[in-house]
UniProtKB/TrEMBL annotation:
Cellular localisation: Nucleus
Domain of life: Eukaryota
Primary site of residence: nucleus
SMART domains assigned: ZnF_C2H2
Organism encoding this protein: Parasteatoda tepidariorum
Name of the protein in its database record: C2H2-type domain-containing protein
Amino acid sequence: SNLTEHSRFHTCEKPYSCSVCNKSFSYRNYLTEHRRTHTGERPYSCSVCNKRFSENFHLTRHIRIHTGEKPHSCSVCNRRFLRSYQLTRHSRTHTDEKPYSCSVCNKSFSDKNYLTKHSSTHTGIKPYSCCVCNKSFSRKQYLTLHYRTHTGEKLYSCGVCNKKFSHKQYLAIHYRIHTGEKPYSCSVCNISFSRSGHLTRHSRIHTAEKPYSCNVCNRSFSEKHCLTKHSRTHAGEKLNSCNV
C-alpha cells in the first residue's frame, strides 16, 4: 500500500535487491531503473535527435538543450540556468561562499572542479601526455585542449562574428564581448567582470593577497607579471656582477 511504501522513508527498509550486484532499494521502480545500468537498456528516446536515456528524468533534462528552457533562475541577477547545480555554482559568485577546501594548504574554492585542479599543484602528478611533444597534463581535458594547438582544430564558432575557437569555454568568454555580460561580481564593491580570473585579480585589492613570491628575496606580488618583471632585477644583478 501507499502507507507501507511511505513508511520505508522513515525506517530505511530496502526490500528490493538487485540480483546482479545485491544493491538494495526502498522502492521497486528504483530497482527497475538501477537494473538498466547492468542491461544497458535505454527506453526513453529524444524525439528531436533520437538520443536515448535509461531514465525519463534524464530525457526531460536533455530536451531543454533543444527547447532552450532554463528553469533555474538566480534571485540576485536573474540569470537563468539549465541545471540546478549550475545555479548553485553561480550563486557563489554573489555570496563568495567557498565550501571546498584544500587539505594541504587550506585554500578554499567555490567549485569542486577548481579544488581538483588546484590539488594537482601539490601532487605534481600529470598522467596525460601529448603524443606529439610529450608535454604532460594533470587532467585529460587539458590534454585534449592542448592537442588542438598541434592540429589547429577550432570546433566552436561565434554566431555573431564567426570567429572560431578551439574550446567551448573560450567561445563562451568571447561571446560576452557581444552581449556585455559580466557574471562575476565583487562581493565588496559590486564591480562586475566578464571573466572569473579578472574578478580573482581584482579581489586582491581588497584582501591584499600576494600569492606570487620571489624565490630569491621572498618579496611577494599580487600579479604574476609583476613577479616576472621583478625577477629581472635579480637577473640584471647577476649579469652585471664581477666574476672576480
